Amino acid sequence: MHDLVRYASDASPYRFIPQVVVLAEDIDDVAAVLRFARENGRNVVFRAAGTSLNGQAQGEDILVDVRRHFAGIEVLPDKHRARIRPGTTIMRANAVLVRHGRLMGPDPASAIACTVGGVVANNASGMTAGVTRNSYRLMESATVVLPSGTVVDTSDAEAETKLWQAEPELCAELMAIKAEIESDPALVRRIRAKYAIKNTNGYRVDAFLDGRNPVEILRGLMVGSQGTLGFIAETVFDTVPLNRLTSTALLFFDSLHAAAAAVPKLADAGASAVELMDGNTLRACAAVEGAPADWAELPKPAAALLVEFRAPDEKTLDLFESKAQALLVQFPLTVPVDSISNAFTRDKKQIRAYWKAREAFISAVGKARPPGSTLITEDFAVSPAHLADACDALLELQERHGFDAAVTGHAAHGNLHFLLAFDSAKPDDVSRYDAFMQEFCSMAVERFDGSLKAEHGTGRNIAPFLELEWGSEVTALMWRVKQAFDPHGVLGRGVILDRDPQAHLRGLKSIPHIEDIGNPCIECGFCEPVCPSRDVTTTPRQRIALRREMYRQEPGAAVTEQLVDAYGYHGVDTCAGDSTCKIACPVGIDTGAMMKDFRRLRHSETAERVAKSVADRFGTVERLLRLALQFTSWIDDRLLGWTTRTLRRGAAAAELIPEWLPEIPRPAPVLPRTKADAAAVYFPACVNRIFAGPTPGDLPLPQTIVTLSERAGLPVTIPDDVSGKCCATIWHSKGYHEGNVRMANLMVESAYRWTGGGRLPLVVDATSCSLGITSEVVPYLTEENRRRHMSLRIVDSVTWAARELLPQLRVFRRLTSVVLHPTCSGQQLGNQPDLEAVAAAISELVTVPITAQCCGFAGDRGLLHRELTESATAAEAAEIGGQVYDAYLSTNRTCEMGMQHATGEQYRSVLTELEWATRP
Length: 920
Prior knowledge:
Strand content: 5-15%
Structural class: alpha/beta
Shape: globular
Radius of gyration: 29 Å
Number of helices: 39
Largest sheet: 6 strands, antiparallel
Helix content: 40-55%
């Protein structure tokens, strides 16, 4: 049951529980499912990332997951085109393309999670794509599985002949519709006019004007078809130049009309992006971390444009800036609060801050929406000439229907976005939403001749309004297209085409109250690509969706019992707790923290006492662990593995007894002696006090850091009483509250004393421990220790090496190539640039795998659930597996163990290689 429930929700406002979920592995699987559905009267929907906003990836029968086994990108020899599989995220595709100075044309805000297949199926565009850089214009060819099972490769020179042979009725109908449209000049003009602005409502009927034969028409119709005409199994895209240099400004105006009037001039000057934010949006964003606080004082009529120019070289960017500066003196710019500069900048940090502010709208509304309310993201498009009037009309409509009035959008393309929050469990709220939609659709079409969907796809919530926009003649043609492709009605029933005028109200999902940390979740799915357990159990979004489903059920329901039984392993135990989901989440939810709290709740009082006792006696525990490692070094790895696997039988034991892996190293030697007179205090993390490096000949990491620091003239001192101190992550990650509190406070008290009240920096040699001491201990400190903590300067050892030691060191020898594994803790600390800087100093070639992410080892979680680490590292291991590097480097000992288990290569600390490279 939990497998069905976790696919029942996505980023849309709908909830439909499928009867079957199929994890298709290849085209043959998809064809088999379609054949089964056709022969048995079943219905199929395709789902990749689940970021679609209108219910087009949901259904109540067979749901086919086409993300997991359909990822991959190949840059073609001309370097301008790429063959991309549908499960590949836009961000992953761009990470590959950027190495060749190229990017995907579509740039949706959900690029971190949305897949190429979904982008094509919805013709999603984004901030800069407009109507010229979207999938319709840039997808050169596609391989498609039709509902009949026929596979069409539109790039095949014989594709037209083959299609006529396999699907004569389809071909004949497509050519008949083409002839019918082209015989009506008024209809041709109408269709061309509709696609002069962004439009994803209905089928892409201009394909009949642009395509010369059935194959070309099919290729065009597949774009924006939202899974209702076939499955897009592979694409070939033309890409666009990267244009690495940017200049950006946030320009403020005293009204929407003034801002809108500036848009055409900025677009004509060559701006790549012109983003609109109204005053209500700006004030709401003031509450979001990173946005200027004084935006809360902006006047209500205020508006802003985020304008960006992109160029391949300095000369071109200078020219763009010159044009922009000439325009600024013409604009009625305003400075109502101190944080506003109305100036263009090339500073990357400032540019990131501007874009973070632009993207903060959904965070502000998502967090502030009433408890139990669904958040709907809507979009539409009008001619840019009508932009300001459309904004005014929309704001008035929102206010009149009791919704928070705010609007943002891709102003250069007349594309506006807004959010609606309502409680679908309340009939009055549903009626209010319906009344708004009826009036909004009429306004957009009848007053502004706009597109009811500009880039989000028709889905289910605009399907009842399709004919309102397109009229009966074109809508009838769209029904004919659907009948020609899918005469048995196998695909996407109720998506795009639906004769039920109330279809947009069916299946609206309620949002029951769950744990406070998970309540703000808008189920967008941005967290899923970074989750280590996404391909082995569940994702953060699914963990929250499952909790909500439990609360939807009546007390004592059998469904709840089934969900709870499965949740222990699928939800709690296999969560790495790495908190990278929080970074990706637009509303900042740390689902890892939520799972750690569940671990805490299931601990008995006895278990809590034992855990606290371990914290109290951790110095003794350290010594015992080193002795145990010494003892196990005399025993065959196979025997140790068999013994631990035997002891782990049973759910309780599986969470307490780690499985032995051959990658577990020897015990660490004693710590080196240091002098008290030092530039910093060095805290060797317990993992480096217990475990040695991967190779017997390696200098132990504590000795490495002491030696490097002395060599650079910045000696460090190791406190005499460092044994028994820990960052508390051991207890925190397992949910042992008392032990966590005890060790967190002991750690901060000791660090405060060691550093002379914060006079000296505290250097920590494991990135996860640096993160733990920097931030994770804080909620568990006494008030006095919180004050002490504020005085501490905690420096990760890689940052210490990159910023303090490296400028003082001479590199005597370099490696040819190294590959890095940046850790999730390093990502949260922001020290990946430091890791890359150290690596670049010692190696000619530094590779950071595109697929690198959290390894899932998570302290000892990889020993408790090795399947978590094996799944999380599979893509990264496959990416680097075909190459040989001189060294495999990271910044955390347990992560190095996990990567060694995944790849068979001996990962070690980057500082070990730095010491070798700078050794006289």
